[in-house]
Amino acid sequence: MEKTKISSRQLTIIIAVFTIGTTILVTPAAVASRAKNDAWMVPLISMGIGIIVIWLYMNIVSLYPNKNIFEIIEIVLGKWVGMIATIFIIFVSLISVSQLTWYVGNFMTTHILVDTPIYAIHIIYLVVIIYGARLGLETMARSSELIFPVIVLLFVLVILLVSPQSKYENLQPLFEYGVKPILSSSIFEITILCLPLIILLTIPSTWTNSLKDYKKSFFIGYIIGGFIIFITVLFCLLVLSYKTTSQSQFPTYLLAKKVNVLQFFQRLEPIIAVIWIVSIFYRTFLYMYTTLKGLSHIFGLKNYKYITTALGILALGLSFIAYPDVAYQKKWDSFTWASLIFIMGLLLPLILLTVGLIKKKKQNSS
Asked: In this structure, what are the phi and psi dihedrals at residue 265, rounded to the nearest 5 degrees?
């Protein structure tokens, strides 16, 4: 049995970094292509929806405060139906590991290490993920506590230096294309921003100081991550305009290129690259951790570290076939991923809460 203890502060940072994840680099383009110059509203609406979703998750945790998501699924749905749901979460998490690895490889070989074979990037990246998984959640939580203030400081630095180039007319006129594009973009945004947070219920509330602190960490961490995404989208629009933002594959990286203060502070895009790679690393680790914990639950393993390397090799193989090209990636993220994460992050929790409340009511009455 894994014995882990993390502080509320560490859990808050884990949730914030997980929320930032892939979102900080790729989300501005996705929402700008749909909502145009009103795209800055999308993260705010998504944050509001996300708070309701987290409230749903916290109600599930309140029913079974000393259990992780896989144990809750088995208790509520039974052994066999619960196993199907667990396998589904494992599948989505493993696919996510391979896809995030592809994201890193594609970005690095496109903008930084252009002459490096993508498979070399994948191998190096997953070796670090495997090593992190073997160290465990507690070690990774402590490292995030050290790294996160640096990420925030670098992010604030880039925003401050690029802000003089802001053009507020880029946000005008408001609601030029109506409300529908904003709402549809918000629905897409929650598939990346908040619904994946279901996997963090792999961390039981008993690993933190108290259930109250556990809930507070979820809400605060999500709001911090969501606010960073809001600022990112806002300044992409202010500086680049929605047309340039929507046409760029990595608009936040392009935003950092615009920094030019007295011909001295220039070319700060590596800072954005560092922020993104660090945050996506923790997001990938948490997906890997969820996959390992799910497999351990199904097979009754006391220590998941025995299968970490094998799972990493499997994820490496999947990363080479995850996305044939960028066009397929955009189509998958918009349709297939959205469907999978709605089932895992919204439909499944609603079933768990409903059935769990009915069972608790029957137990109390009996």
From this structure: -85, 100
Pairwise CA distance, residues 120 & 280, whole Å: 18
Cα–Cα distance measured from residue 198 to residue 344, given in angstroms and rounded to the nearest whole number: 8
Dihedral sign from CA coordinates of 69, 71, 74, 80: positive
Is 164 buried (19+), middle (13-18) or exposed (0-12) by CB count in 10 A? exposed
Q: What residues form DSSP beta bridges with 261?
A: 265
Longest dimension (CA), the chain: 75
Tokens of 150: 């640096």
CA distance 57 to 76: 14
At 57, list the tokens.
């998750």
CA-to-CA distance for 295 and 291, rounded, in angstroms? 6
Tell whether pTM > 0.90. yes
Least confident residue range of 117-121, 167-171, 193-197 = 167-171
